[in-house]
């Protein structure tokens, strides 16, 4: 692309000079100066033609690459289409087999007695007979003609040219005649097919309209459950019917709005009815979970409808989505209507049954109330009679109690006199007791005051002693701190003196290396040893690196503890309780040093 853009630009020559002085000299010398050379236009034309040819070849390569990418993209889309078509083919075959098996199971010998099923069986037999007739009259003659043509093509190649031309003319006439017959048959069959499709579509529309109208009528009608129920309260039943009518009107209005929306959307469809059927069939071929589904079915729709632009297909897709969404909303509305209608009927039936039960309860309560009033009247008469007897009994009891009360009052007066005398004697005793108690309290208070004064004196003396002790302890603490500071200063002086002496010793033993470039550049002892220079003795590979000072095998075996442990191990008793008790008691040949004493068995 850059080369193509460069080719479209105007041809420009750029001349650069070494410095501004050269430009000045050129201007002074003029056009006849020897520094200017004549322009070679033929060379420039050749360069331009070469550039154009190169850019044209690059443009051709780019076009080929674009064409190749388009072809590969087209092949990829076709491959994806084939995968989807194969899956749809398998699914349709499964559905077809399932439907045929269901139809066969439906048209069994058990259901032969049904009139409609017998008609269907007769119709199936009639269709099979027509198919056989079609095979005999149309398909078989074509196959015979095809076999005849192959036979003539194979055997007539041996005859003369004129005879061959004569036979070919006759054969062409026969083929044209068969084509006309087949064309007429196919036209008649296509007309019958169109007629049947129109009839089926009309009947399907009628059935759908009838079913929708029937459903709407069923939903809008007053339910038989409410009409058959009896209610003692007429206003309650009328209010339930009014509420049901309001609910039905509300849902009918919403349903009409949805129907109007569907009609408006259907009028805005960009495709005809047959094209819309093809559109829907293409969309059904591609499942919803397919990756790149919209790209695939839009590509297939553009292939099916080349006379429609992509914008028209996108608009039709938008209207189809709106139509599908509105139909789904309409279906949800009808299901909600049906559900709310059922709930309303259940609630209404429950309310009416409760009203009937309430009415029956009210009747029962009225009868019970009347019977209770009669019983109450009888009981009232008996109560009045009983009250008269009770009043007479109460009067007699009051007289008797009055006489008894007079006697008790006289007794109480005598008892009060005795009680007052006894209280005066008790008061005298109490006064004597409290006088003795007060005297004892005063004596105890005097003793406590004396004891308190004595304790205060002792605490004052102890306070003076404690202050002296605290002062003594503070003096001792200050003295100790001073001594510690002196010791720390002395240690610091000693440390400084020690460092000074050490530094003097370091200076005395310090190595002063002289300038020796030969020694600096020569090999060291370690490098000579690695290279094997100056080694007199042969290196012994098996020579130990260090000398070991330890026990030998004989000394270790001579230890009685080891021998006893080996004997126990051979006998299998080294983990027994006897071994744990005996091993610590065995002493070695030589007593160990105190710093080498083992503490393993002491735990």
Protein model, in words:
- The protein has 603 residues and is mostly helical.
- The chain has helices spanning 2-8, 20-29, 41-106, 115-155, 161-220, 224-228, 234-267, 273-285, 293-304, 310-509, 517-521, 525-531, 553-557, 560-571, 577-582.
- Helix 4 packs antiparallel against helix 5 (161-220), helix 7 (234-267) crosses helix 10 (310-509) and helix 8 runs antiparallel to helix 9.
- It is flat, with a radius of gyration of 66 Å.
- The model is unreliable at 1-20 and 160-166 (pLDDT under 50).
Topology:
Blueprint: H1 2-8, H2 20-29, H3 41-106, H4 115-155, H5 161-220, H6 224-228, H7 234-267, H8 273-285, H9 293-304, H10 310-509, H11 517-521, H12 525-531, H13 553-557, H14 560-571, H15 577-582
Helix pairs in contact: 4-5, 7-10, 8-9
